[in-house]
Structures are given as C-alpha cells and as structure tokens.
Amino acid sequence: MKQKEKETYTLTNYIPTHKTISEQSRAKLIDWLSELHYKYKMFPETIFTIVSLVDQYLSLKEIPLSELQLVGVAALYIAAKF
Q1: Most buried among 29, 47, 59, 78, using CB within 10 Å?
Q2: What pLDDT, on a 0 to 100 scale, did the predictor assign at position 19?
Q3: Rounded to an integer, what distance in angstroms lies between the CA atom of residue 65 and that of residue 80?
Q4: Contact 72, 32 (CB under 8 A)
C-alpha cells in the first residue's frame, strides 16, 4: 500500500495549471476550513489532513471555482473520519 501511495501521490505546483483557482482562492478555502476545524473542536492533526487531501485532489483534477468549497467540505468530512 505504501508503495502504491508513493507511485500515485505526487504533489505538484498545480496553481499555475488551473484556469479558475488562484493562490488567493485556495488561501480563502483553507482559512474557512480552519475556522470550521476550530468551531467543531477537531484534533489538531485533522487540519493537516484536510489541506493534504485538498492539495492531492487539486493536483489531479481541474475543477471550476464554484466547486472548490465542495472539495474542501468533502476533504473535511473524510479527514474527520480518520
């Protein structure tokens, strides 16, 4: 499993390749997710997992800006289950 993760998980600088997502929109998303993380009193490790999941997904898929918050909430939900 670790070997497969190393083969498939390659985090790249995806911001220049996205047409709709900028550094500012990603920063706003992470700020909002941090607020939710604090509000629901999650474990400190959860926010790092959330950001990692968002970055992994966005480095693989290009999404419209209108769906960025949906990706963030999905990452929050997945990270909360760990």
Answers
A1: 29
A2: 84
A3: 24
A4: yes
- Picking from 46, 56, 50, the residue whose alpha carbon sits closest to that of residue 73 is 50
DSSP letters spanning 10-50: -----GGG-SS--HHHHHHHHHHHHHHHHHTT--HHHHHHH
* Number of residues that this document lists for the chain: 82
> How far is Cα 78 from Cα 17, in angstroms, rounded to an integer?
26
Residues 18 and 58 sit within 8 Å (Cβ to Cβ):
yes
Q: May I ask the CATH architecture of the domain 29-82?
A: Orthogonal Bundle (1.10)
Are the C-beta atoms of 37 and 50 separated by less than 8 Å?
yes
